[in-house]
Structures are given as structure tokens and as C-alpha cells.
Fold this sequence. Notes:
273 residues; alpha+beta; binds molybdenum atom; single chain; membrane
Amino acid sequence: MPDFRIMNRATQARDATGHTPPSRQRRQAAPLDTQPAPQGDAMSRHTPPLTRRTFLGVAAGAIVSIGLPGTFMVLADPAWSATEKKFRKDGRPRIPPGQAPIEYIPDMGGTPGKATTTNWQLRIHGEVNKPVTLSFQDFLEFEQVDTTCDIHCVTGWTLLDSTWTGVRLSTLVEHAQPAISKGFLVIEAARGYTTSIPLTEAAKPDAILAYRLFGKPLPAENGAPVRAVVPDRYFYKSAKWVEGLKIVSKDEPGFWETRGYSNSADPWKEERH
Length: 273
Ligand SMILES: Nc1nc2c(c(=O)[nH]1)N[C@H]1C(S)=C(S)[C@@H](COP(=O)(O)O)O[C@H]1N2
Ligand SMILES: [Mo]
């Protein structure tokens, strides 16, 4: 087997035309996205790693790359193959279809807000009986949890065993006393980035707002002071630089969801578009 531990995409062609229509992307291992999004927020650096399948395709000259420059360290082949054969407790494969495991969390870009831990505020509002605005100090007073989970970016990378510390979304939602039991949670981030998940997804114990990653303060580029982590959905559901949680009865599809990406975003069903 070739050694493809390091996949440097810098030498590959860049498509200036932006989005590839989903119908054409589906033929590839992962959808590729190079469009600098409005507001500068986004997947403008949303460069996929090459999956083994894509790599072999490139080697055979079968695929024209449209990624931006970037280097991803994927797991060495023996480790990758071993993990591919593993299953989660719920019986689903450890690596969802079309994903390649990587070694480090990349910075996928987006536009940060101005918040620091001293001036950060979290507004919990919408269809709730007790809307609240929390400071970072208030936030830290809620029950904190550590969760180790796998995360899956729609462009094809999977980071196994990432450890996050924060407060459960369910704890925060309950604090504001929702007026509805069925509905959606809109996660509101800096600069107008939003994403939404069903309240049932937000109720899962490892769906959290995180402020630490691998036991250290969350890096600015990964969403500090506070980001969402919604492990079982593609990672665009995990908004960085979170500023608000809005409970709604009618769904409000978010930034990527209104730009052609799946609203349900289940990695095991490959709901990419
Ligand atoms: N506010 C905000 N959150 C965001 C994004 C963004 O552009 N803006 N990108 C999403 C996407 S597409 C991914 S893959 C992850 C990337 O997180 P990372 O940069 O920490 O790897 O953040 C998600 N959250
Ligand atoms: Mo992503």
C-alpha cells in the first residue's frame, strides 16, 4: 500500500467556481466545498482530507480535486483498518461511511466573535417561560461534564476520541423552562452563523456546550470561549463561538442547512446534502 499518512492538497487544482452541485458531489467520497461564504463565515477553509477511496481515485487520475490548500494527517493505514472494523456500543461502525480518521482537530475556519470569557454572554430564549442571559461565570456554575466522542466533518474527516468539557445542552435548555416539549434548538453563534437540531438531539447526554478540549482551554479557532459539540451529527451542527440558544416549535434551518447541506446530517446515513 502507498504511504498516505500525509496528504498535502496544496499542489492540487483549485476550483474557483465554488459549490459543486450535490448531484455531482455524490460520486465522490466526500462533498467538497470551496465557496467563500457570505460574511466570511464558513467552510471557506472547509477542505476535506482525502479518504482512501478518493486517494486511490486521485492516484488513478479519476478525480479533479477542488479543495483549498491544506494538510491533514490521517491515521496510518494499520490503525485506520483496525478502527474501521470496530463498532460503537450502539452497533454502528466506528467510522461512518465515506469518512477518513485524522490525527488532530483541524481549524476549519469561520468568523469568530469578539467575546472573551470576561464579556461573553449566553442568551437562552425563544419558546421558554424563563428567558435568561448567562455570563461565563454563571455558565461554569452548572453541572459540568466530560465527554469523549468522535466527531465527523461533512467533508470527510473523522476525529476519534476527542475529549470535551462543558455543560449539557439539556441542562441549559431546562434552566430556561421550555414552554414546548417537541421542537428544535437553534444554536446561535457570532456573526450570524446558526444551526439547528431537534430538542430530542439536544437532550442527549453528550450534546454539550464546551469550553475545554482535551483538558485545555478551547483554542480560539476551535470556538472559544464556548462552542457546541453535537457528536452524532456532521460537525457543522457544532457551532463555534456560541452566543445564544433559541427554543422554537418550527425549525429554522441554519447557515449550511440553507446552503445545500442536509438538515438531519446523520453521518451513518451519509446525509451530507
Ligand atoms: N460559528 C461557526 N461555527 C462553525 C462553523 C463556522 O463556520 N462558524 N463551521 C462548522 C463546520 S462546517 C465545522 S466542520 C466545524 C469545524 O470546527 P473546527 O474548526 O474546530 O474543526 O465547526 C462548525 N461550526
Ligand atoms: Mo464541516
